[in-house]
Design a protein that fits this description.
The protein is α/β, with parallel strands linked by helices and 217 residues long. The chain is 41% helix and 21% strand. It contains eight helices and eleven strands. The two termini are 19 Å apart. Helix 6 crosses helix 8. The protein folds into two domains: 116 residues, Rossmann fold, CATH 3.40.50; 91 residues, Arc Repressor Mutant, subunit A, CATH 1.10.10.10. The strands form three sheets. It has a five-stranded parallel beta sheet with strand order 2-1-3-4-5, sandwiched between helices. Strands 6-7-8-9 form a four-stranded antiparallel beta sheet, with helices on one face. A two-stranded antiparallel ribbon has the order 10-11.
């Protein structure tokens, strides 16, 4: 899952981004509306967490432009006001959901996950393949009943591979979906993470390398 957080309060933006990364999400941050639109023009995101009162380009205008583009990203609008007319205005602009500040972080995560599910074909709450089980709600993974102690990136890579249901996932797609925009596209981080994940999954190996194409379960 790849998320863009557009929030001008830098401390809050960075705090939210760090918390989401710990939940195995790839997160980019923009501190104004212009920066958000620039990132949305070049990257594909599942969910945009959009503060309504942004500088340079107002959050309302960001919302309007995305609606005109018919962009596929889901929008969770944040605002300091929880008044009914404010929520109605935000939803009418094209936002998919609305959350007033201050908010509980667990609720933010739950709303992000709910919005992201609208962009993909329905998947069962617990993915099962090749003796592996992955519970997205609890963020737990196991093999043959043995719980796996995975890092957030290892979990994210496993989740993408399991969601592919046996299909091949390229290293580029893994990098796009599990890491943020600051990651060097020429890095070996995908190869290293897959190697560590294989070691934790144990024998017999279940992640297959498809030469010149990527990986599959």
């Amino acid at each position: 899952m790849r998320i863009l957080v557009a929030e001008d309060e830098r401390f809050l933006a960075d705090l939210v981004a760090e918390g989401l990364r710990k939940r195995a999400m790839a997160v980019d941050v923009a501190y104004d509306g212009a920066g958000a639109l620039e990132r949305l023009a070049v990257n594909e995101y599942d969910v945009l967490v959009l503060d309504r009162d942004l500088p340079l380009v107002h959050g309302d205008d960001v919302c309007r432009e995305l609606a005109q583009r018919e962009a596929g990203v889901r929008i969770l609008m944040l605002t300091a006001s929880g008044a009914v007319h404010e929520r109605v205005d935000g939803l009418n602009l094209g936002a998919d959901d609305y959350l007033a500040k201050p908010f509980a972080f667990d609720e933010l995560v739950a709303r992000i996950r709910a919005l992201a599910r609208r962009n993909v074909p329905p998947l069962p709450p617990v993915l099962v393949r090749s003796g592996l089980t992955l519970d997205a709600a609890r963020r737990e993974a196991a093999r043959d009943g043995r719980r796996l102690a995975l890092s957030p990136k290892e979990y994210a890579v496993l989740e993408v591979l399991m969601q592919a249901r046996g299909g091949v996932v390229s290293a580029e797609e893994l990098l796009e979906r599990a890491w943020d925009e600051n990651t060097d596209p020429f890095t070996t981080v995908v190869k290293v993470t897959v190697s560590k994940l294989r070691a934790k999954l144990g024998d017999p190996p279940v992640i297959v390398t498809v030469p010149g194409s990527g990986y599959r379960l």
